[in-house]
Design goal:
Layout lengths: L2 E2 L9 H14 L2 E6 L2 E6 L2 H28 L6 H11 L5
Parallel strand pairs: 1-2
Antiparallel strand pairs: 2-3
Helix pairs in contact: 1-2
Length: 95
């Protein structure tokens, strides 16, 4: 089985990490997780890689929620009513 080293910065996973894990699972490649540059965990089977992929997606989702809450606390963004109105208009539905 082929090893696949990919440096993913901590807490900055981004969508590339999910895509990379998905690609590794489909291709049957081993994913090696490192901590401080040291090999700590090798994920080799499809089930474990799928579970890791799901975990990364959840972490990405949580990071997006945290960012959204931070922006809301800072007064950025738009109100629910405005977002609802824009979504209805975008889909050609009555407002």
């Amino acid at each position: 089985m082929e090893w696949d080293d990919m440096e993913i910065p901590p807490l900055g996973l981004g969508r590339d990490a999910s895509r990379h894990l998905h690609h590794c699972r489909v291709e049957g490649r081993t994913v090696v997780l490192k901590i401080d540059g040291q090999h700590e965990l090798a994920v080799q089977d499809e089930t474990s890689t799928r579970l890791l992929e799901e975990l990364v997606e959840r972490l990405e989702w949580l990071e997006a929620v945290r960012e959204g809450l931070k922006e809301a606390r800072e007064g950025k963004g738009i109100s629910f009513e405005m977002a609802k109105s824009e979504a209805l208009k975008a889909h050609g539905l009555p407002t």
